[in-house]
Amino acid sequence: MSAELVSSRSRRESIADAGIRIISRDGVRALTHRAVDREAQLPQGSTSYHAKTRAALLELIVDVLTSRTKLDTEALGTDLNTEFADEDRPTVDQLAALLAALVDTLTARQDDMRARYALILELNDVPDLRQKLIDQSDVNAAARLVATRALAKTGLPDWGAHVDELLSLTDSLVFYRTAVNPTVDLQSILARYLRGATHA
């Protein structure tokens, strides 16, 4: 890969990071090319060079957000397969700990998560872009795969019926941790849900 291409990718990620910080701190409507140049400490016009329109800038930011979350989610899938062989059954507490670790990882990126929720609310008029942040996305596909593998390993009866519930719960916990209570006991909540599903 050429140094020029690496530099271009690095500059685009710096622009996206600056945009994320602006959205997290000041809201989507504060996002402008000039504001991003200032936030990223780039020469005026740099953002416009890499994202000519506001729509292109929003798309760049959404792509960076979803890429990071997808990587975090896939890492959980790798941890699950590493810690538990196909014949192993994790306990409820072990599985809850793994899922809580994913929520911890996501909410550690507070600016990213705050920007994500702000964009979900603001992008109603850009449905294709909004879908990348919610259910019809690579992130959702990765999360669904992880949830499916995790529940299958537990040996729960009719475990497939709980995939959507578990996805909704973890996403809700990310929001609650980010916006309401950063100290909520994730593992306890997840373990209670899994125990309830076990006895459903």
Features:
mainly alpha, Homeodomain-like_sf, disordered N terminus, Tetracycline Repressor, domain 2, 10 helices, 200 residues
Short overview:
This protein has 200 residues and is an all-alpha fold. The chain contains 10 helices and no strands.
**How large is the count of helical segments?**
10
Report the CATH topology name. Answer: Tetracycline Repressor, domain 2
Mean pLDDT: 87
Ends apart, CA distance between termini = 53 Å
Encode the helix/strand succession as letters: HHHHHHHHHH
Q: Can you tell me about this structure?
A:
It is a single chain. This protein has 200 residues and is mainly α. The chain has a single domain (3-198), classed as Tetracycline Repressor, domain 2 (Orthogonal Bundle), CATH 1.10.357.10. Helices cover 74% and strands 0% of the residues. It has helices spanning 3-26, 33-40, 46-50, 54-83, 92-108, 110-122, 127-131, 138-154, 163-179, 186-198. It is elongated and about 60 Å long. Mean pLDDT is 87; it is low at 1-6. It comes from Nocardia fusca.
